[in-house]
Amino acid sequence: LWCRSCNSPFPSPFQLAALERQVFDFLGYQWAPILANFLHIIIVILGLFGTIQYRPRYIVVYAIWTAVWVTWNIFIICFYLEVGGLSKDSELLTFNISRHQSWWSENGPGCVRKEASMSGIKGLDNHSYISVIGCALEYRYIEVMHSSFQILIALVGFVYACYVVSVFTEEEDSFDFIGGFDPFPLYHVNEKPTNLLFKQTYL
């Protein structure tokens, strides 16, 4: 069979892209994206298992999930571009339990992080003010590029999934046509040849 002799049609970038996204969201304590990335990694593994173990249903689940994943990444793009009343400075992605922002907001290319002591100001002693300057690219555009890449990968994965399911379906149809997996068809009857029957009657 093609599906059992070939390598998995899901290339390693599917897994690497999901893991890379998860790492940077963990660094930024972005809890909503962390949860979404975790589900995405599970579904990708399920799709790989379905491909290796000849389970088209698992691949269909992956194909359906790609639509959800694309929708989520479109939301992330709208969030950081502040489309439709969304604000990148809100605590929506942290479930309103912390004021953390994207890890790239302080660690982007060219960014210099400076801390200024707040001592002398009542109620703010032992605190510091953090400013970030010199960023070559604003962090929200980095997040937008991340999400855009995820959308591209998801679309490629959807095409692969549909192709693999179609191949599996064609193989199942061809097996049914030539007798399927039944070694002895139902209509098979073990009869003696006609000439042997005539000889027995003559005797």
From TrEMBL:
InterPro entries: Na/K-Atpase_Interacting. One of its GO terms (biological process) is regulation of sodium ion transport. It is a multi-pass membrane protein. Its main location: membrane. The chain crosses the membrane at residues 31-52, 59-83, 149-168. It is found in: Cell membrane. Keywords: Cell membrane, Membrane, Transmembrane, Transmembrane helix. GO terms for cellular component: plasma membrane. Pfam families: NKAIN. Signal peptide: none annotated. Belongs to the NKAIN family. PANTHER family: SODIUM_POTASSIUM-TRANSPORTING ATPASE SUBUNIT BETA-1-INTERACTING PROTEIN 4 (PTHR13084:SF5), T-CELL LYMPHOMA BREAKPOINT-ASSOCIATED TARGET 1-RELATED (PTHR13084). This is Sodium/potassium-transporting ATPase subunit beta-1-interacting protein. It comes from Donacobius atricapilla. The lineage of its organism: Eukaryota, Metazoa, Chordata, Craniata, Vertebrata.
